[in-house]
Design brief:
The chain is 43% helix and 17% strand. By secondary structure, the chain is an alpha/beta fold. Helix 5 packs parallel to helix 8 and helix 7 packs parallel to helix 8. The structure holds guanosine-5'-triphosphate and magnesium ion. The site of magnesium ion has 5 residues, from loops. Magnesium ion binds next to loops.
Length: 252
C-alpha cells in the first residue's frame, strides 16, 4: 500500500460491445480530459464494426490501443484481459470506463487526484455530490438496492460498490488474485472492490455524475442482476459466519 505516491502512467480501459456510435466521442473526450493517459479499447468482436472503428482511431493516435477478443464473453472477462494487458505493458494505473457516455471523462482527473492517497478510487453516484441524470427510476432503485444489499452482507465501506468507473493502482490489482474473480457481469465490480477491502487496500470514493446512455443499447440483463445478488449473498454468508466464529473464539 502506498502513502502519497505519484500515480505514473495511466491506461484507461474501455470494454465495448456494439458501441459504434459511442466509441469515437468517448475517446475524443478522454483524450481532451486526460491528454497524457493512454486508452485501451477491449472489443468483443462487435458485429456493428466497433472494433474496426477502434482500429482506425488507434492508427490515427499513438495514445489509443485496441485489444480484439474472439467474441462476447461478458464485462468481467473483457476488463480482466485489459488489466493483464496494462500490467504487461507496465502501466501504473488502470481506469475502468464505460463506452456509452454514462461515465464522464471530465470527472476522471478528480479520481486520479484522489488516487494519490488511496489504492483504488471508485466514482460514486451515491455519495454527497454524486448524481444521476436521465436514469429511469427503476434503474436507480436497482442500483441503490444492490448497494444496500452489498453493504448489509459485506459491511463494505463503499456506497457505490456496483459502479463501473474506477481507478486502480497497478500495485492494488497485483495484490488481489485476479484469476479468482468469480463474477462475469457487473457483480464483477463488487467482486473486485470486496477483494481490495479484504486485502486491506484503501478504497476511496469521489462523487460523479452518471448519465443514461444516449446511443446504442444496454447489455444489462436479469441474469447479470441475479448473478450479482447470488454471489454477494454467498460472500456475505461466508463473511458473517467468519465474524461469528471469531466472536465465539474471543468470548470462550
Ligand atoms: N467487451 C465487452 N464489453 C461489454 C460487454 N458487455 C458490456 N460491455 C461494455 O461495458 C460497458 C457497460 O455496459 P452497458 O451495456 O452500458 O451496461 P451497464 O452500464 O451496466 O448498463 P446500462 O446502465 O443499462 O447502460 C459498455 O461500454 C459496454 O459496451 C461484453 O460482453 N464485452
Ligand atoms: Mg451503461
Amino acid at each position: 500500500m502506498s502513502g502519497s505516491a505519484p500515480i505514473g502512467r495511466v491506461l484507461v480501459t474501455i470494454p465495448t460491445f456494439n458501441e459504434i456510435d459511442n466509441v469515437q466521442p468517448i475517446v475524443m473526450r478522454l483524450r481532451a480530459a486526460v491528454p497524457d493517459a493512454d486508452i485501451l479499447i477491449a472489443d468483443d468482436n462487435s458485429p456493428d464494426g466497433t472494433g474496426e472503428l477502434a482500429d482506425r482511431l488507434a492508427a490515427a493516435d499513438p495514445h489509443v490501443h485496441v485489444l480484439h477478443r474472439a467474441g462476447k464473453q461478458g464485462l468481467a472477462a473483457a476488463y480482466l484481459a485489459a488489466f493483464h494487458w496494462g500490467l504487461d505493458h507496465s502501466y501504473d494505473v488502470m481506469v475502468e470506463h464505460d463506452a456509452d457516455g454514462s461515465h464522464r471523462p471530465e470527472d476522471l482527473p478528480k479520481l486520479l487526484d484522489r488516487l494519490q492517497t488511496a489504492d483504488v478510487v471508485k466514482g460514486s453516484r451515491w455519495v454527497p455530490g454524486g448524481r444521476v441524470v436521465n436514469w429511469p427510476k427503476s434503474r436507480e432503485i436497482l442500483s441503490r438496492g444492490g448497494n444496500l444489499w452489498t453493504r448489509m452482507w459485506l459491511g463494505i465501506p463503499v456506497k457505490d460498490a456496483t459502479g463501473g468507473f474506477a481507478a486502480w493502482r497497478a500495485a492494488t490489482l497485483r495484490g488481489i488474485d485476479l484469476d479468482a474473480v468469480e463474477a462475469a457481469g457487473y457483480g464483477f465490480q463488487v467482486d473486485l472492490a470486496w477483494r481490495a477491502v479484504q486485502a486491506g487496500f484503501r478504497v476511496a470514493e469521489v462523487p460523479i455524475t452518471f448519465e443514461e446512455r444516449q446511443a446504442g443499447s444496454s447489455k444489462m440483463s436479469g441474469t447479470i442482476v441475479v448473478e450479482a445478488m447470488l454471489l454477494t449473498t454467498r460472500w456475505g454468508v461466508a463473511h458473517r459466519l467468519a465474524q461469528l466464529k471469531a466472536l465465539f473464539k474471543h468470548t470462550r
